[in-house]
Write a structure and sequence with these properties.
mainly alpha, three-stranded mixed sheet, 14 helices, about 60% helix
């Protein structure tokens, strides 16, 4: 034997033997079933699987396959309803009326796509799992409206247009969050390969659903009870599979929701939770429930109405690249960023904001035993937000380094951060030397 080789981490094993006439003979020692499994692995899984993808890849893809199949079936039922609604099979229907309905449906969908991308574009990166689930729930609502539309012929066009808007939003949210999740799963700078194989898997699933639809459509045509029963069954399967898919994803990056869970648990126990524990607790159906909402990168004009208060805040944060303000009346913590602020400043300011939120949330509970946290609680109970800001600033300066070490030990990534800062940046000078023409 001259040498041997294996294909990745598979059972494919070959030996190369030198024969008498100096020829190299290949001896395949792979199990008989390996060639078939290897074929499907090469065609439908990224090269180098499973080492080339994240550990949650397979579980997520299984649930994603199930939800795609269910969605394809309900989509077929909706397509049949739409064709019936525009007049297929009705001699009194006109081609022009059907064409206008379709144009209005597509036009409103285009407008909805642009507006949604404008309003929520940034949040899709920060909360990929929640928006991924939102997209699929909205898709089911759109399909429901499309199946329902033929029953209300007088309102058919408005209902179909509304469904078109919903589906356009689904396209933006689903496509963007799929890209974010693909980036998370790709571990060898192979995002294009992971994305392409995901497309192949979805195409295969849609092909299987198409074959099933060819059998179902003749059986359900004209049978409303059966149509609605199948819609309900596959919609429930679709929602369950989607929920299972997004909750199986284990992200290592920090967003506002995961940081909130991490900091609150750290302040309670002094320990940093693992990746799996935090991702399991992360809400995917609604926003993080907190006493004080955190706004990162906000405008000075939205925070300060009095110059003296702004000057006090600048004096307190003279050595920092951010300002932080607490407003108990609006229930918010606003963070103003400097153009020089880095991701470390973003993490520091949000850590401080979460400390304030934790103390405020546990104001009347015996959980703030630390003297530093007690100072924050006393200031908040008296309504002295400036003193609470100062105490929390000192607390963050002392404890952030330990918190960061815990993050690193547990496998969390502090770069990049997905905290969703807005684009406002402010310049200030505690010495009062800003050029007047720049003020």
């Amino acid at each position: 034997m001259v040498c041997k080789e294996v294909y990745g981490s598979t059972n494919v094993l070959k030996k190369y033997v030198k024969t008498e006439k100096d020829k190299l003979k290949t001896v395949d020692l792979s199990p008989k079933w390996t060639s078939l499994s290897q074929f499907f692995t090469v065609v439908f899984l990224p090269q180098g699987y499973p080492e080339s993808v994240s550990s949650d890849y397979l579980q997520y893809q299984i649930w994603d396959t199930i939800q795609a199949f269910a969605s394809s079936i309900t989509g077929t039922l909706a397509a049949q309803a739409l064709l019936k609604g525009v007049g297929v099979g009705d001699e009194s229907a006109t081609v022009m009326a059907a064409t206008l309905t379709w144009i209005l449906k597509d036009g409103t969908g285009m407008i909805g796509r642009i507006l949604f991308a404008w309003i929520q574009g940034t949040n899709l990166d920060c909360d990929a799992k929640r928006w991924r689930l939102f997209a699929d729930i909205l898709n089911d609502m759109a399909i429901f409206m499309e199946i329902l539309a033929p029953y209300f012929k007088a309102y058919f066009t408005p209902i179909v247009c509304t469904a078109g808007v919903c589906k356009s939003i689904v396209g933006v949210a689903g496509g963007a969050t799929r890209a974010a999740l693909t980036q998370h799963q790709a571990r060898r700078n192979n995002m294009a390969d992971v994305s392409a194989k995901d497309g192949s898997q979805e195409t295969l699933v849609n092909l299987a659903a198409l074959v099933c639809s060819l059998t179902l459509v003749p059986l359900v045509t004209g049978k409303d009870v059966l149509i609605w029963s199948l819609f309900l069954l596959f919609t429930l399967l679709h929602l369950f599979a989607n929920y299972s898919a997004v909750t199986s994803v284990v992200m290592e990056t920090l967003n506002q929701a995961r940081l909130h869970i991490l900091v609150h648990h750290y302040l309670q126990t002094g320990e940093v939770l693992s990746l799996q524990e935090v991702n399991y607790k992360e809400p995917v159906l609604w926003k993080t429930r907190r006493k004080l909402n955190v706004h990162l990168g906000t405008s000075i004009g939205k925070v300060f109405s009095r110059a003296s208060v702004l000057e006090e805040s600048i004096a307190l944060y003279k050595d920092s690249n951010y300002l932080l303000d607490i407003n108990l009346q609006t229930g918010s913590v606003s963070i103003i960023l400097s153009p020089l602020s880095t991701t470390m400043d973003h993490l520091t300011s949000c850590f401080q904001a979460e400390v304030i939120d934790y103390v405020y949330d546990n104001m009347y509970k015996p959980t703030t035993k630390s003297e530093d946290l007690g100072n924050i609680r006393s200031a908040l109970s008296e309504g002295d937000t400036l003193s609470a800001t100062a105490a929390s600033y000192n607390y963050a300066a002392v404890h952030l380094e330990k918190f960061q070490r815990g993050l690193t030990e547990k496998g969390w990534l502090c770069e990049p951060l997905l905290l969703g800062p807005d684009e406002w940046r402010a310049e200030w000078d505690s010495a009062g030397t800003l050029d007047k023409k720049d003020v």
